[in-house]
TrEMBL record:
A Pfam short name: Bac_globin
Name this polypeptide is given: Group II truncated hemoglobin
Heme is among the record's keywords: yes
InterPro entries cross-referenced by the UniProt entry: GlbO/GLB3-like (IPR044203), Globin-like_sf (IPR009050), Globin/Proto (IPR012292), Hemoglobin_trunc (IPR001486)
Source species of the chain: Novosphingobium aureum
Amino acid sequence: MSEPTLYERIGGAPTIAALVDGFYDRMDAREEARDLRALHREDLSESRRSLKNYLSEWLGGPALYSPEKGHPRMRMRHMHVKIGLAARDAWLACMRDALDETVSDEEARAAIYGNMAKLADWMRNVEG
């Protein structure tokens, strides 16, 4: 018997949808995320869909991202955007609060946030 994936532990697609929506809602609303929000299109529909698909696959659920877009290559896909400490921190603050709101499994939430923090730091491509 195998261990459940993080995707299964958090409740699957409905939780991922709530997580992503909560994340982007926070990015829209928070002053400290204003510059981060400005890096995105006005209409976040495609960003929301893409992140939901990515997280589904990344957390061990259905492969929804790679069949459509290929290997994630997240850093390469974001190189056209200047990502420094402030953008990383704003992204993580919005995501942490969305995780706190949507993921009740504390161990799963901590594991997801820890991995997201590593990814967010690796995405930085400018100093400061």
